[in-house]
């Protein structure tokens, strides 16, 4: 019996999020169904992070125990042959029995994509938020820098459990532009809706609908700001990193290199 760690990618458009929720179609329920066809007998897989309805991932990390008599590459091929077209495994490794993809994670990186066109593009719209008129990249990065550091981010999201801490540390926060705008944010953890809220607030700032004082008060003093969330379709869980003593790092290097 071995403990496997997989990197999972999925298009979240047609799923009610990652985590299993009764009889609704989620990524976890679909993945576990395929695992059972391969002889898996556990009750649940472990995973690095919940993603909401419509959110995508290229670097979700899942862990499970399986009695598999063939090689690791054969397991990848067997899973991908049975998974639907919008879910795929692209990396596999073995982990210790006490490894937990969520609680052992040191950082998570999300990427949010915006395309700027006067009219909706049906192709781009599946994975990005359409914004028009164009946003000022310099002003977006001015806002991104304000978000850096360790703060009470309760103005940007809520804890998953009542009374839990809303303090989080943002390690990296930056915008880049090629054909599209991409926002990269890396943190030790994130509140519920925090990344989408962060993107929305920065867009409001770039549109001069939110002042620097209001933004700083939201970050530094947890002062409420006008409500709003960026759409889920633009968000991608890109990578999850682990401490060196765990010797586990699962990243989507291609995506990170594209926006460096």
Task: Looking at this protein, list some descriptive labels.
globular; 2 domains; Alpha-Beta Plaits; 260 residues; eleven-stranded mixed β-sheet; alpha+beta
Range of helix content: 10-25%
CA-based gyration radius? 19 Å
Percent in strands: 25-35%
Q: Mean pLDDT across all residues, rounded?
A: 93
| Tally of separate domains | 2
> What is the CATH homology-level superfamily of the largest domain?
Pseudouridine synthase I, catalytic domain, C-terminal subdomain
* Sequence of secondary-structure elements: EHEEHEEEHEEEHHEEH
Choose one word for the global shape.
globular
What is the makeup of the main sheet? Answer: 11 strands, mixed
Distance between the termini: 40 Å
Question: Which stretches of 5+ consecutive residues score pLDDT under 50?
Answer: 248-260
CATH uppermost class of the largest domain: Alpha Beta
